Amino acid sequence: MSNSYFGEIGAAVKTLAVGMKTTLKEYFTPKSTEQYPENRKTTLHVSARHRGRLVFKRDENGASKCVACTMCEKACPNGTIKIVSEMVENPETGKKKRQLVDYQYDMGDCMFCQLCVNACNFDAIEFVNDFENATFDRKQLVLHLDKEVYEGGSLPNLLDGGAPLTIGKFNTKTK
Predict the structure, then answer these.
(1) Cα–Cα distance between 149 and 147 in angstroms, integer?
(2) How far apart are CA 5 and CA 70, in angstroms?
(3) What is the pTM of this model?
(4) Which conformational region is residue 129 in: left (phi greater than 0), alpha (psi within -120 to 50 degrees), or beta?
(5) Side-chain half-sphere CA neighbours of 122 within 13 A
(6) d(CA 161, CA 45)
(7) Strands 81-89 and 125-128
(8) Do 52 and 130 meet the contact criterion of CB atoms below 8 Å apart?
(9) pLDDT tens digits for 84-96?
(10) Residue 65 pairs with which residues in a beta bridge?
(11) Is 140 helix (H, G, I), strand (E, B) or coil?
């Protein structure tokens, strides 16, 4: 019967002292805070592997590689991608070929799972690490990838990761 009433009070005081010691230690530790959005152009680092938004890969002429095979649409688990295509006959060969009319991507419903990119046999789409996609209207999150040409992120060198990352130190420089 060593755990008497006074023994329990002593254990409670010991637990409280350990908690207060931890709290005071953290209170006096210097804080490091990422200054966002003020310093995002100079200090923000984003991993190059971050999946922020889906874009079309384009060749040097600006043409997309998409052949409207709808494999990405079928692989999407929640119907984020909708492809409209039509059959067009080539006048020289007389063969019919599927042509892309509209590639609609709803970023607001996307789970960023990358199943569409993995399903694409033509390497026509990819995720880039552009993450600043906040809007006040959900309709602006519906993108038509075949009609837009992605020029890069809103931040300098974002596709390369942004500001250089220093392991063990936070990017807290001012502008």
Answers:
(1) 7
(2) 72
(3) 0.70
(4) alpha
(5) 15
(6) 6
(7) unpaired
(8) yes
(9) 999 998 888 888 8
(10) none
(11) helix
